[in-house]
Design goal:
Strand content: over 45%
Number of helices: 0
Helix content: under 10%
Structural class: mainly beta
Largest sheet: 8 strands, antiparallel
Radius of gyration: 18 Å
Bound molecules: (2S)-amino(carbamoylamino)ethanoic acid, manganese (II) ion
Strand order of the largest sheet: 1-2-19-16-21-15-14-13
Shape: globular
Number of strands: 21
Order of helices and strands: EEEEEEEEEEEEEEEEEEEEE
């Protein structure tokens, strides 16, 4: 049935909800047999870019000048960089620092969440090196004192990294214990389950496949609804002073 122009997607000054019915595919420079659903980027005021890369078998990402983080949603990709080569299956992830070239080639039809951000170096702090891993190898911890809300930090907790990518799993009925309002922005992909996301002064039903961007200080709260856990992948800028280096 025709949806007569209705969608759950919504663009607001400090947040964006994109549901799969509104995704538009595009090619980014250097991509081969691969297309991108660009979810957010500097055009909207974000300091990073997030997209979902959809690969045909043998498809490849283009190069980037920025740091890049990949999380495999479906299928498997071969990643090569800094002398390492590795096959990443679902829940596998990779971090590539700015500088050294790397390649990402799909071993089969695959979907990968991609984050790219220009690196903000810190004096006397070592720049990060490449990481290849799998979410299954990462220990989770409870957020606050709620065992029903488990977080996995996919990148090491050191000042070298200027962003974080985490997964968060909510048991049915679990919720953030507070409405968060913070300087960091978020890029979020719902991976499993669903619930209600408060963004600004609106409450949205959300489900697996949806993307959310939250700008700095966007009021945010989530409660999981349904009989299965809700899980999302979430980016945030991290470990840096709010003033950009030249203004300090
Ligand atoms: O890390 C976070 O700020 C996270 N708790 N935010 C969120 O889930 N919206
Ligand atoms: Mn938050």
């Amino acid at each position: 049935m025709h949806n007569l122009g209705r969608t759950r997607s919504s663009q607001q000054p400090n947040h964006l909800l994109l549901t799969p019915d509104t995704f538009v595919r595009t090619a980014l420079p250097g991509m081969k047999n691969c297309s991108a659903v660009v979810h957010v980027g500097p055009a909207l005021g974000a300091a990073f870019t997030q997209y979902t890369a959809e690969f045909e078998s043998g498809g490849e990402l283009g190069a980037t000048d920025a740091q890049r983080f990949l999380y495999v949603l479906e299928g498997s990709v071969k990643v090569e960089g800094e002398g390492k080569s590795h096959q990443l299956a679902a829940r596998g992830y990779a971090y590539f620092p700015e500088g050294p070239a790397h390649r990402v080639v799909a071993a089969q039809t695959s979907r990968v969440a991609v984050f790219e951000k220009s690196y903000q170096p810190l004096d006397s702090v070592k720049r990060p090196s490449a990481i290849l891993s799998n979410e299954d190898a990462v220990e989770s911890h409870a957020l606050g004192d709620d065992p029903d809300l488990q977080v996995k930090c996919l990148l090491p907790d050191t000042m070298s990294f200027d962003f974080a990518v985490n997964t968060m799993v909510y048991q049915p009925g679990a919720a953030l214990s507070m409405v968060e309002m913070h300087v960091m922005e978020h890029g979020l992909l719902m991976l499993e389950g669903g619930g209600i996301y408060r963004l600004g002064d609106s409450w949205y039903p959300v489900t697996a496949g949806d993307f959310i961007w939250m700008g700095p200080w966007c009021p945010q709260w989530f409660g999981a609804i349904g009989k299965a856990p809700a899980k999302y992948l979430i980016y945030k800028d991290w470990n840096r002073h709010p003033l950009p280096p030249k203004q300090r």
